[in-house]
Amino acid sequence: MTYVIIGNGVSSIGAIEGIRRHDQKGKIVVIGAEDAAAYGRPLISYLLAGKIGADRLALRGDDYYTKNGVDLKLGTTVTKVDAAKKTVETDKGETIAYDKLLVATGGIPFVPPIPGVQGADIYSFTTLAHANTLIDLSKSIKRAIVIGGGLIGLKAAESLFDRGVAVTIVELAPRILSAGFDEKAGKLAANRLKNVGIEVNCGVTAKEIQRDKNGRVKGVLLTDGRFLESDVVVVAIGVVPHSAIAKEAGIKVERGIIVDAKLMTSAKDVYAAGDVAQAIDQLSGEHRVVPIWPNAYNQGYGAGRNMAGAKLPYAGGLPMNSISFYGLPTISVGVVNPPEGDTTYEVHALLNEEKETYRKLVFRDGRLVGYVLVGDIDKAGMYTAFIKFEMQLDGKAKDKLINAGPEVFLWPAELFDEKWNPEMSKAAR
Amino acid sequence: MKRVYPNKDFCIGCHICELACLTAHSKSKDLILAYTVERNEEGLSSCKHVHEGGPTCVALSCRHCDEPSCVAACISGALQKDPESGRTIYDREKCVGCWSCLMACPFGAIARHPLENKIVKCDLCHDRPGGPACVAACPNMALKQEERS
């Protein structure tokens, strides 16, 4: 059995670990376009901020690939997938045959068609190479504008600021972190950034990136008419699935590569996982591209074990993000912005601006379906349990959850025993 | 693998497991020094926590899950599954304190270190002769370490 994995991010690590749970012998080939062994991609902001060195980036130990019998081909791009012949071709001229293939090519930065966006001084922030470029650059530039107030943009802004660059964020939405946060949480986070000296502009975006006669960036003209001078622009609007090779191979792609319950694509023996995949979402039951780290690992793991013959369905992804802004921790899980006017949702929000704490709970049909925590995050996992295990809460239990916080005694007794103390009868003997 | 299983019918909420855990993870290995000095000065914390719900109590810590949510969520590789022992292992040096594990673990078994950007999590006292200190200390056999399928 030969497993070929295209991509060397966290999905790929998940896949190796999923395969090896069920098959110790099969050959695994991992083809990665980047030069580095799998690294903690979100750590590039820690690297850029100078908080960690390059030696701390690797996700697994030096002997990981050898120990797991992985033939690792780095700096190699797959140029073609032939699902009929079951082969992949690389830019090194190699043709590699597979029995099972995983497409885990991740996402690529989305660059919107703003006038002036093509050319020098425009940067992305999604790879180690990008981080290294920005580290070098930070020594010589004074001002940077970050377009996009999502996770990547904010982290790029914070890290560049830590390197001594004056940073301005522009975000089209009325608040930062519009996807995973609401107005109140966004405001608490934005205040932290503003207090250290990062400029945050919401409700505006770049109308045009203006350049001097040598083609270098002069600054950005905003949609509200203001002109902000800048040496460079970091575009961090988001990532889009890097699905080109799958599309070219005739594999079904919508927003991302469509996968079934076992994470197999429309082509037999070809699987997809991570930011490139459009996989099932636990809460909505719909197929969605949710480019977050835990989903990427879990889908890789799920695909890996099914490639190895386990025949186990993927449980579905749950959107979740944990991120801190200058010491202010924030966590959001599940549905945090229910559709406006939809009365099937019930929201309980508690804001304490002085203490910089916020807690928002979102219920639907007697179940917790989402939450946001800012500042006091210690009970996050206990809230996650109610969403993940889809616990039905009667009125009393729900009131307790709202008023006293999550507690394991609110779990149904059978669930508690199943998870914490299974086979108790045997133990009691 | 042998895991620690808590029995809420036997737990009397005495918190002795927490103290045993604290001592086992202290430098001094002395209960009084661990509690009075190391806890205050270094943020030494117990991995075990006694939960109380009315008359019922139970002492919980990391379950060392087969397919742990924390490992999937860990952005730094600090949390990994040890294929040999089955433990969910934590490398403090690699941890950057992003709290993703704390968010993802539905068992609430991961805590923030009180002073540093690190986590506190059960290591099953893997290097302690005689196994987990909490199990050894429990006066009513409410904690058992055993092999269950």
Note down, in words, how this protein is organized.
The complex is a heterodimer of chains A (429) and B (149). With 429 residues, chain A is of the alpha/beta class. Chain A folds into 3 domains: 2-108 and 241-307, FAD/NAD(P)-binding domain (3-Layer(bba) Sandwich); 122-237, FAD/NAD(P)-binding domain (3-Layer(bba) Sandwich), CATH 3.50.50; 327-420, Enolase-like, domain 1. Helices cover 26% and strands 28% of the residues of chain A. Chain A is built from 12 helices and 26 strands. Chain A has helices spanning 10-22, 44-48, 64-67, 128-138, 151-162, 183-196, 244-248, 293-307, 380-388, 395-404, 413-420, 424-428; strands at residues 2-6, 27-31, 70-73, 78-82, 87-90, 95-97, 100-103, 107-109, 122-123, 143-147, 166-171, 199-202, 206-211, 217-222, 227-229, 232-235, 239-241, 257-258, 270-272, 277-280, 287-288, 320-325, 328-334, 345-352, 357-364, 367-374. In chain A, the strands form 7 sheets. Chain A has a 5-stranded parallel beta sheet with strand order 3-2-1-7-19. Chain A has a 5-stranded parallel beta sheet with strand order 9-16-10-11-12, covered by helices on one side. In chain A, strand 10, helix 5 (151-162) and strand 11 (166-171) form a beta-alpha-beta unit. In chain A, helix 1 packs parallel to helix 8. The longest helix of chain A is centred in the last third of the chain and has 15 residues, at 293-307. Chain A is globular, with a radius of gyration of 23 Å. With 149 residues, chain B is α+β, with helices and mostly antiparallel strands. Chain B folds into 2 domains: 1-61 and 124-149, Alpha-Beta Plaits (2-Layer Sandwich); 62-121, 2-Layer Sandwich (Alpha-Beta Plaits), CATH 3.30.70.20. In chain B, the strands form 4 sheets. In chain B, strands 1-8 form a two-stranded antiparallel sheet. Chain B has a two-stranded antiparallel ribbon with strand order 2-3. In chain B, strand 4 and strand 5 (88-90) form a beta hairpin. In chain B, helix 1 crosses helix 2 (31-42). The radius of gyration of chain B is 15 Å and the shape is globular. The interface between A and B is large, with 49 and 44 residues.
